[in-house]
Write a structure and sequence with these properties.
The complex is a heterotrimer of chains A (274), B (225) and C (306).
Chain A lengths: L1 H31 L4 H22 L7 H31 L5 H7 L11 H11 L10 H32 L10 H6 L8 H21 L8 H44 L5
Chain B lengths: L3 H19 L4 H36 L4 H19 L18 H31 L6 H16 L3 H6 L11 H10 L1 H25 L13
Helix pairs in contact in B: 1-2, 2-3, 5-7, 7-8
Chain C lengths: L2 H25 L6 H17 L10 H12 L5 E7 L5 H17 L3 E6 L2 H18 L9 E6 L4 H7 L33 E6 L5 H12 L3 E5 L4 H4 L9 E4 H15 L9 H35 L1
Parallel strand pairs in C: 1-2, 1-4, 2-3, 4-5, 5-6
Chain lengths: 274, 225, 306
């Protein structure tokens, strides 16, 4: 226990020393580019802070530690306040104030749009939502939640029906014979070029059959036997290709984020790359 | 009162938004409800922030385990909030963009929020690699198909795919890995995603109807809260 | 031999040696610590970055569709670009928004910036400083481009502005009345736009733009998204979504295409293309992990089971 405490203190001292070394070196780096002293100190501090917060998060890969916890808790606090502030200025001051008070509109320097009494509805519902913080009158927030749920359900019903159901079914009915000029033409011009007739037809057949078999797989009101079972099996193979493609893209996405952070560390902080 | 009024509100609001698509005279009602929704959404942000402050302040006050980290959360929250609400160091004052260059808010966003958020997600690359080594096994036909498809996509989405199969003649170019990857995305992947999308759409439509008609009431919680 | 080629050889040697060691250890049935795996991935990304390994890129049809749309619209067309992402997705998605902003303004179109994410407002402002003020100093805010910023409400915002912008947006991010800005003359709603582009990957994102703006408003819609979201959007292509930039590869392809057509931007930074080097090696390593993991399961596992 004594040893681990000593190691912790040494590590902490090392982190502080490294922080100041980085700060001083970045400051002198910025100064050498012509930036004034005050701005150099500020920018040197900020870039060092960002680098150390990045390393604190990365340290989690070794094991959970106080530096990671510090960075994580800081992120939680800062991000909650960020969303509050942007929401307040953009929507509350931008949309609500101009419709209820010319005095407040003048104070916040936003154009007054004329009084509309109906805008007190979201104000009252919003205050009711905040009642959720109280255990005694928390039930009042249900009215606001009901408004939110009703709006979301009303919006989603039509849009999902149109874009994700009707359009998707319609787009599945693709021509199964593409640029058809007879079997003779098809076999005499047969090739495996991606823009060729065969591959385009194959793609359309896969889409047409794949969508139906995929939907059949998700139909659980009938036992998956016989022809229905075979179609369901084909459906699951199509879905496996889908999930494999998703996995490939997921790997690409996650690696890109890592490359982005390492680029910051190597280029902006350490200056090892241009 | 506690459960009847919310159900009526959900029914009225949902119905107006659906009918506003079909009856242009009430289209403005639908737009107004959407604006009200946007304003209430801001209060939801306040609720989240307020709840965060309440929980962590309580931990600091009672000096529970790891209360020091809760103090960090509270401090970070309050400083960012002050920077944003008071537009500290904002070159254009109260009327300027809250995230204007040079403001304390933008500085904290660029040098604290941005690096922390980006690095948290960057860690996922390591865990994906670990999962690839430990978990992905071609134990059956289905898993093998998944792995083969992922291999083609992983290779096809990099220049290596072209270097490996670029020698294949144009009349057979579907077998070039980048082209095969494109075909997989635009045919079988599209088919599978479309099947999933249609299923989800039907689920959303039925759930929306259940909510609007008051059949589904789980969002109201339980009465002893 | 160029620096990039030397780096490629060194990367392949280091990583190849490590993978051989991993293979031998796995076939012997010995446990490999997860921190070793983490180290591999770290090296496979760091070494190519340090040696600046890059490859040439060619636009695929789904990316070219977006490029050609912007290219073929008559000069002065109205293009709206929405920043629907946060810092978590910025490394993948920001190269897309940067190059598309350059393309739109280089072609002489009018650019409207907004965001459905709160972080979109900061990103839009930063893009104006970084791209527009540097590369297009003659462009006038309010005449050639405008940033109207963020409004809370996710898809609720789209539901309003698809019929009337001014019901939700009365000013731009700098507090100027929209009616006082020449760029907003004759603009009532999203239906007056010639192209909608959403750059993002989470919720709300490209999907919501298709559902709540593109389809109901009958406005051409394109997207750029994080790789994780790209497969989910293919069902909308090409009838509801005219094109899509999927992940950093999509960004790299667009950058290459843009540089080919617009030689005056030969010096522009290509973050997408630069990231493909580390991306390629990381993909190789992960594929090797899958193969080694399966070999150890089937061969070393059999030995253990005996």
């Amino acid at each position: 226990m004594e040893n681990s405490k000593k190691i912790s203190i040494i590590v902490f001292a090392g982190v502080i020393v490294l922080f100041f070394v980085s700060w001083i070196s970045k400051t002198s780096g910025f100064q050498s580019t012509g930036l004034p002293f005050g701005a150099s100190v500020r920018d040197g501090f900020l870039i060092t802070l960002a680098a150390f917060l990045t390393l604190a998060i990365i340290s989690f890969l070794y094991k959970d530690n106080p530096y990671y916890k510090f960075a994580e808790h800081l992120f939680v606090g800062v991000s909650a306040a960020y969303w509050m502030c942007v929401g307040f200025w953009s929507t509350f001051v931008g949309n609500f104030i101009p419709k209820v008070s010319s005095t407040l509109s003048g104070f916040f320097e936003v154009p007054y749009k004329g009084f509309d009494i109906f805008y007190f509805v979201p104000l009252i519902l919003g205050i009711m939502l905040l009642m959720r913080l109280s255990s005694k009158v928390g039930w009042v927030s249900r009215w606001s939640l009901a408004f939110i749920v009703g709006t979301t359900a009303g919006l989603n019903l039509i849009r999902y029906m149109r874009s994700d159901f009707i359009s998707q079914v319609s787009n599945t009915f693709v021509p199964l014979l593409v640029e058809w000029q007879g079997t003779g033409h098809f076999f005499s011009n047969f090739n495996l070029s991606i823009s060729g007739q065969f591959v385009m037809m194959l793609g359309n057949w896969v889409i047409f059959i794949g969508v139906f078999c995929g939907i059949i797989y998700f139909f659980f009101s009938k036992e998956h036997t016989g022809f229905f079972g075979a179609a369901s099996k084909l459906g699951i193979w199509i879905l496996m290709v889908t999930f494999g493609a998703s996995f490939g893209y997921t790997v690409m996405g996650r690696v890109s984020l890592l490359v982005g952070r390492l680029t910051f560390l190597f280029r902006d902080w350490l200056g090892l790359i241009n | 009162m506690k459960r009847k009024v919310p159900v009526i509100i959900t029914f009225l609001v949902g119905s107006v938004l659906i009918l506003s698509v079909f009856f242009p005279p009430i289209e403005t009602w639908g737009e107004d409800f959407s604006i009200f929704f946007d304003i209430i959404a801001v209060f939801a942000f306040f609720l989240g922030g307020g709840n965060l402050l309440r929980i962590h302040s309580r931990k600091v006050y009672k000096q529970d385990k790891d209360w020091g980290f809760s103090a960090v959360t509270v401090l970070g929250f309050l400083i960012m909030l002050a920077a944003g609400l008071l537009k500290i160091w904002n070159p254009d004052g109260i009327s300027g963009d809250v995230a204007a260059t040079g403001s304390l808010f933008q500085m904290m966003y660029n040098w604290i929020f941005n690096p922390l958020g980006a690095t948290m997600y960057a860690l996922l690359a390591f865990f994906v690699a670990s999962a690839s080594y430990r978990a992905f096994r071609a134990k059956n036909v289905d898993a093998t198909i998944l792995l083969v498809a992922s291999f083609i996509i992983l290779l096809g989405r990099t220049p290596l795919g072209m270097y490996a199969t670029g020698w294949i003649p144009e009349s057979w170019n579907i077998l070039q890995i980048p082209n095969l990857a494109i075909w997989i995305m635009t045919s079988p992947n599209l088919a599978g995603q479309r099947a999933i999308m249609i299923g989800i759409a039907l689920g959303v439509v039925s759930m929306s109807l259940r909510l609007i008609l008051g059949v589904e009431r789980t969002y109201l919680g339980v009465d002893n809260e | 031999m160029s620096n990039s080629n030397i780096g490629l050889v060194i990367s392949l040697l280091i990583i190849g040696a490590g993978l051989v060691w991993l293979l031998i250890r796995s076939l012997q049935g010995k446990e490999v610590e997860r921190r070793i795996i983490f180290l591999f991935i770290g090296l496979s990304v760091s070494v190519p970055l340090l040696f600046n390994i890059t490859f040439s890129e060619k636009a695929t049809p789904i990316v070219r569709a977006v490029f050609d749309k912007i290219e073929n619209l008559p000069e002065g067309s109205r293009i709206l670009l929405s920043f629907d992402y946060g810092p978590t997705m910025a490394p993948e998605v920001e190269p897309m928004s940067d190059v598309m902003i350059r393309h739109v303004l280089a072609k002489g179109h009018k650019l409207y910036l907004m965001g459905l994410w709160a972080t979109g407002q900061s990103l839009g402002s930063a893009a104006v400083e970084r791209i527009i003020k540097n590369d297009f100093p003659n462009m006038v805010d309010g005449v050639d481009y405008v940033n109207i910023g963020y409004k809370a409400g996710n898809q609720g915002v789209l539901n309003v502005i698809v019929t009337d912008f001014r019901k939700l947006y009365s000013t731009d991010v700098n507090g100027r009345d929209l009616d006082s800005l020449p760029i907003f003359n004759d603009i009532k709603s999203l239906k007056d736009m010639d192209l909608l582009i959403s750059v993002g990957g989470g919720f709300p994102g490209v999907k919501e733009w298709v559902q709540f703006a593109g389809d109901p408003g009958n406005v051409p819609t394109a997207g750029g998204c994080a790789a994780v979201s790209a497969p989910l959007l293919y069902p909308y292509y090409p009838s509801q979504l005219l094109g899509l930039l999927g992940g950093i590869k999509g960004a790299a392809e667009y950058e290459s295409e843009f540089k080919k057509r617009y030689k005056q931007f030969g010096d522009m930074p290509e973050p997408g293309v630069k990231m493909m080097g580390p991306q390629t090696l990381a993909h190789l390593v992960i594929m090797a992990f899958i193969v080694i993991g399966n070999l150890s399961f089937f061969f070393a596992g059999k030995g253990r089971r005996k």
